[in-house]
Amino acid sequence: MNVLVKSATIVDPKSDFHNQTVDILIEKGLISQISKRIQNPKNYKVITLDNLHVSQGWFDSSVSFGEPGFEERETIENGLKTAAYSGFTTVAVNSNTNPVIDSYADISFLKSKSSNNAVQLLPIGALTKHSDGIDLAELFDMTSAGAVAFYDYQKPIANPNLMKVALQYASNFGGLVCSFPQESKITGLGVMNENVTSTSLGLKGNPALAEELQIARDLFILEYTEGKLHIPTISTAKSVELIRAAKQKKLDVTCSVAIHNLVFTDENLTTFDTNYKVLPPLRTQNDIDALIIGLKDGTIDMVTSDHNPIDIEHKKIEFDYAKYGTIGLESAFGALNSIFTIKKTIELLTKGKDRFNVESAPVTIGNKANLTLFNPNDTYTFSSKNIISTSKNSMFLNQDLKGTVYGIISSNQLILK
User: Per the omega criterion (within 30 degrees of 0), is the bond before 99 cis?
Assistant: First the structure.
């Protein structure tokens, strides 16, 4: 692929051209020239877009599709198309399919199904067989097939000894163990944050304590095993404190936060809109403030859309019985960019690569062209026309967002909306 990108402002602190508006020449998928003005004698395709900005390709550490088994929610093909149009060049895909991704063959299927795509799909294998929390899955075999981490998506590991063994075993080959932060016996039948709002709505509460107890337990086990742990989608102020203290002890722990947990609170559930039913649940403004501080000081390592398509039959029902989940790829950039500066937004969308063994490619001459193209200043109201996913369960509908994505250049391919 040969293309000339004109008048693009580079947002990449690792590049010598950071904050400069330049032309970028890409030949055979490599950045061959960056300069104030580049001629086009070979008649390459020219990209000229309004207020064009370019950064390293974005990465999302927690994305769910439906295939295999739940293709009515999302296929791999359309899911990767959604990721590309949303600015992501790499996505780590969860194992919550049917069957669950828990073997060498399952990982190979995902790799094969996504081969030759502009977006790189990184499979996350289940931590336990069938994600039932009883026996460890074949972690080493899945690593050999290309798994980048192990996670029973949104299913906590109740047995502390199983978590201990998982961390010890995975440490033999550098495997990354993910543990969903929820103590289910505390959560019980709770469907939203336990607070005055849950009481007023008559909905059973899921207290912050449930998350914090599980994190405290896992951090004790991590310290004992000296393993490698990732805690996905934390949501409370105390969780930030616990992880901050663990990092001060030099434990090998990282964590993420779902973007919607930085925007919405439990008060948004007053209309009983099931698009707001997510796990972990939406918390309080105090929690949001602590999470944002955690992102700014580096306690929280990365953000995720936690993109989880759910078909209408499992969302348009009574709140107690609706499935957890919201789509988030399409709204991720606009939501983050409404909270943080553009520099910080891009930093958050590109952090986490090292943890999941993703190659980082600064916008520099000689590197592979792995780029996201966007306009950080465009403002709009997010609506159904902005949704590319098969499922439409977005809690960002009718929200004002800042920043639009044009597309990506990745894997020697150009994808533009």
Answer: yes
